[in-house]
Each structure stands twice: as structure tokens, then as C-alpha cells.
Design brief:
This protein is about 55% helix and about 10% strand. By secondary structure, it is α+β, with helices and mostly antiparallel strands.
């Protein structure tokens, strides 16, 4: 038995419900429903498993059509299977956060670059929140992923610069010691 989401008269997604639970929710034939395996939202009376909910119902066609038009105007899908999206998905920062976590750790052995893992966690949440229809949480996760990715990047740059300066100072020190040794030998 499938579990269904439906769009209420205010245009909000609700679910999941079994067909019997949909009856208790007073779902009408024109109510848009979706379940796993469906490509798009459909009217409840177009779904074979839900057709038994409406046998003997006394909905007038005009009322059904008016309800469908009202739902279509207020509808904003919250799943990737919807037919329209009003806002683009925020940048995930997943690739960048993985790179600034792994590459500096391999090259510099800096455990501080592992702070990029926090960026990876936030980056993984962006698409999940967006697909659920929570654009605000998706945008916030994107901002947090960007912040932690940039922190890890600056730590990596700092470590690389520290290594370069250390190598230069070692060569200068070794060269000055060798120069002093030549002066003492003469």
C-alpha cells in the first residue's frame, strides 16, 4: 500500500498518508496527490488506488473545477518531481568543500584542514532541504557551507605559506652556517 502526499487548499504539502487516512483528511477528487514512483502530481481521482475514496461522492463538476483552479494557482511543488520551481537551488559547495578538506590534508598533513568536513556536512544538506521545499533552510545551509569551505581554504593557504617560509628560512640558515664555516676555515 502506497503512502501519499497531497496539496491542501492553502497550497501546502502534507503527508504521508495511506488511502484510508486520506479519506479522514477529506481529500477531494481534484486534490493533487503524489507518491513514490509517480513522475508528477496527479488529481486524486486519476490515481487507481484512490478511486475508491470517491465512489458515491456528490461533488458537482463546477465545484471540482473551481477547487482544481484554486489549487493550481497556489501550488508550489516541494519535490523534484513537480512541474515547476519558483527559485533556483542555492549553490551546494560540495565539490569545493571536499577539495579543501582532502587536498591540504594530503599535501600538508594539517589536521586543521579537517574543519572542511563541517562544510561538507552543510553542503550535503542544501539539496535535501531544497527538495523538501524549504528554500530558506537550503539557502542557510548553502551560506554555512560557503563559510566553512572558505575557512578551510584559508587554513590550507596559511599552511602552504608557512611551509614555504619555513623552507626558505631553513635554506637561509643552512647557507649562513655554511658561510660562517668557510670563514672559520680560512
Amino acid at each position: 500500500m502506497n503512502r501519499y502526499f497531497y496539496i491542501d487548499i492553502e497550497g501546502k504539502q502534507k503527508g504521508t498518508f495511506s488511502p484510508d487516512e486520506l479519506r479522514d483528511e477529506h481529500v477531494k477528487p481534484e486534490t493533487l496527490v503524489w507518491t513514490q514512483g509517480m513522475e508528477q502530481w496527479k488529481r486524486a481521482d486519476e490515481v487507481a488506488e484512490l478511486s475508491t475514496l470517491f465512489t458515491g461522492s456528490s461533488y458537482a463538476p463546477e465545484t471540482a473545477m473551481a477547487g482544481q483552479m484554486q489549487q493550481a494557482q497556489a501550488y508550489r511543488p516541494a519535490t523534484p518531481y513537480g512541474s515547476q520551481t519558483l527559485q533556483p537551488m542555492p549553490k551546494t559547495w560540495l565539490v569545493e568543500s571536499i577539495l579543501v578538506t582532502i587536498l591540504p590534508f594530503i599535501l600538508c598533513s594539517s589536521f586543521l584542514s579537517l574543519l572542511g568536513i563541517i562544510g561538507i556536512v552543510y553542503a550535503a544538506q542544501v539539496e535535501s532541504f531544497f527538495n523538501r521545499g524549504d528554500y530558506a533552510a537550503s539557502a542557510e545551509a548553502s551560506r554555512s557551507a560557503a563559510k566553512w569551505t572558505k575557512i578551510a581554504m584559508w587554513i590550507a593557504i596559511g599552511w602552504v605559506l608557512l611551509i614555504i617560509v619555513t623552507v626558505i628560512l631553513v635554506f637561509v640558515f643552512v647557507g649562513s652556517v655554511a658561510g660562517i664555516g668557510e670563514l672559520l676555515n680560512t
